[in-house]
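Notes from hallway chat w/ T.B., transcribed later so I don't forget. T.B. wanted the structure written out for a chain they're using in a teaching module, and asked if we could keep both sequence and structure tokens in one place. Agreed to drop them here.
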Amino acid sequence: MLTSKADLPAIPSKRYFTISEVSELTGVKPHVLRYWEQEFSQLRLVKRRGNRRYYQHHEVLLVRRIRGLLYDDGFTIQGARQRLGAGGEMERPITAQEVRAELEAILNWLDSGIGKQ
């Protein structure tokens, strides 16, 4: 079982993921994922043929966030639900431009502080 965020594999660029793929990508067992679907209204996955579950990229990210809140940060289900609901966190997927801007800001911060002593 994966123990930390650093152990999680990269998410491939696919449109849909099965529950077993999401389980591998997040380190969360399928029965737990099915339970979280009931507990977290933000998880709105697609069900197709024969009630098969398909997750999109942003839902895999949300599962990782929920996993972090519950397993790493020690939140209860209710606390994680409130945390996700507060401030609109994870209401929409993060765009590539937002990620790039944040990474550039971090690089600038690191460049300005490293080696200046």
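Follow-up for T.B.: Residues 87-91 have pLDDT under 50 and may be disordered. Might be a good example for the class.
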